[in-house]
User: Fold Acidic leucine-rich nuclear phosphoprotein 32 family member from Monopterus albus.
Amino acid sequence: MDMKKRIHLELRNRTPSDVKELVLDNCRSNEGKIEGLTDEFEELEFLSTINVGLTTVAHLPKLKKLKKLELSDNRISGGLEVLAEKCPSLTHLNLSGNKIKDLSTIEPLKELGTLKSLDLFNCEVTNLNEYRDNVFKLLPQLTYLDGYDKDDKEAPDSDTEAYAEGLDDDDEEEDDEEEYDEDTAPGDEEEEEGEEDEEENEEEEDDLSETMNCNKILNMYAALSKIRNSLNLAGITEPIKS
Assistant:
């Protein structure tokens, strides 16, 4: 699926300014351009473009509220200096599986003062001597590199998924609002409760009726058994003829 069509489907009849999360993984970009993604997505906070054939981020629109950017498994080899201007609020950046070979390529990221987590897993730069120490020195604002902090302590789920949880909280709030809007008026609730009580009473009456019928049948069997026993005691074994 091409990028423009995917974005149209992701909108789901919403306007671009209503969208906070956009997932375009495995789509086809046209010459490294994310067609359909414009400055109108001004509220966008999460963008995922995994394996879409990007060679540069130069064509990204200005997304001033973007916090998390997934760019893994593309062919990006440089040009990261534009991120400070286009996405100044970034906290999480995933560049794993790209063509990043040396530290000078990521040096422009020091302009992203809010950047907390950077992922370069499976990039050639990770093979350099003292790679981790040098990256933390180059980007002092980082807390986590490839999922671990300076002391090789793994990032807790609460941190690595912090943004996603934030989105979930927003969704829950929206759901709560919808549920509140759909609540029935007090009068309607009383009517519904009355109907439920009537249904329960009818069910109880049906159960009682069935119980009484069962008791009648059991009583009949008991009476017949008594009659049969009396006849046996009297020595009458043949059926009584009328």
Remarks:
- Residues 3-179 form a domain with the Leucine-rich repeat, LRR (right-handed beta-alpha superhelix) fold (CATH 3.80.10.10).
- The chain has one domain: 3-179.
- Helices lie at 3-11, 83-86, 103-106, 131-138, 157-160, 162-181, 186-233.
